[in-house]
Amino acid sequence: MAWRGLHFGEKLRYNAGMLTPAEEPTQAAETSPRQRQTERLKLSIPIRVMSFGGSAGDFVENTCTIIINRDGALIALKHRVAPDETLRIINLENFREADFRVVGEVRLQSEEYLGWGVECLEKERTLWDIEFPPPLDPAGLSAAALLECLGCGKQGLLVLNLVEVELLESAGTLQKLCDRCGHLATWSYADVTRRPKEIPPAAPQAPVSPVVGKWDGKVERRLYKRMAVKLRALVRNSKGDEEIVKTENLSKGGLALCLKMQLSLGEFVSVICPYSGGVQEFERKAEVRYRAPHVAGQNWFYGLRYFRE
Ligand SMILES: [Zn+2]
Predict the structure, then answer these.
(1) What are the tens digits of pLDDT across the range 25-60?
(2) Neighbour-count burial of 204, counting CB atoms closer than 10 A to its CB (0-12 exposed, 13-18 middle, 19+ buried)
(3) Which residues contact 11 (CB under 8 A, 6 or more apart)?
(4) Domain that holds residue 269
(5) Higher pLDDT, 277 or 13
(6) SS3 of 14, please?
(7) Could you tell me if 23 and 114 lie in one domain?
(8) From the CA of 131, how far away is ligand 1's center (Å)?
(9) 77: which of 119, 146, 271, 276 lies 20 to 30 Å off by Cα?
(10) Residue 137 Cα distances to 38, 85, 151, angstroms
């Protein structure tokens, strides 16, 4: 299987159950220091993919990422490529570009699109311009949020403790060191709606993610601005089955996360978020408003909206 070296392999496996434990040592042994794994982020960034002389012939396709980490991504493509082929990828947000190696295919349960894991071949380049921490412990308490420095515009998936999460929640900003500014700076949530910088002539606009889909209607999206926050949450269904995972994003009105449990639209669940394992934690009722098969169909991506009684 061609998943060695896919830097977000660990997280994908956790979410999608794609790799068997037997593959772990190989993966670890071949991971160079520069290629160490980082936490991954579910983020739909508009990209242009170009292939020359590959198995699918020459093509240019505008599409988007589904999941990114520092040096790699899971991307959606209509064209069928092959492992070890090289693709040129342009980030349409900032026009940075780099060569990527196709690592392997990930089934998306989409008629039109295939998912491909890709890793950057140019180790000095960062296409996303987002700083990533090492992987978070899925069961651990640490949280992370995609924040932007208001001083210089730098974006990073910053690791936060629960006090910092609360400060962000109440004030909307947080004081943290910014290495680009060189001093303590004010950070706030980065916009998760990523747009192309400009549309070059003859190129159609990159589509919204074919996999993630829309969270809800436009009006609702304005009311419930999403923030990319990874926070430990407990979800319990009506049968009493529980799962503890990290959220993919949060809003005032709800949260999105990946679960193995099967929930149907309109079903109500109990949610504790943040979940620290204490006895007196605030439990809320939430309704399943969105669901889609996640990567490889091993689990589901859910949008849950808090129920107001
Ligand atoms: Zn800064």
Answers:
(1) 333 333 444 455 899 999 999 999 999 988 888 999
(2) exposed
(3) 37, 39, 40, 69, 135
(4) 218-306
(5) 277
(6) helix
(7) yes
(8) 12
(9) 146
(10) 11, 32, 30
* CA 161 – CA 257 distance, rounded (Å): 19
CA of 175 to the centre of ligand 1 (A): 11
63 shares its domain with 37: yes
148 alpha carbon to ligand 1 midpoint, in Å?
A: 8
**Neighbouring C-alpha atoms within 13 Å toward the C-beta of 224:** 19
User: If pLDDT is split at 50, 70 and 90, which confidence band does 193 have?
Assistant: confident
Report the domain count for the chain. 3
Residue 161, in any domain of the structure: yes
Q: What residues contact 31, with CB distance under 8 A and at least 6 apart?
A: 5, 7, 37
CA of 155 to the centre of ligand 1 (A): 9
Say how many Å lie between the CA of residue 72 and the centre of ligand 1.
24
Tokens of 26: 């190989």
* Residue 28: closest CA among 4, 12, 3: 4
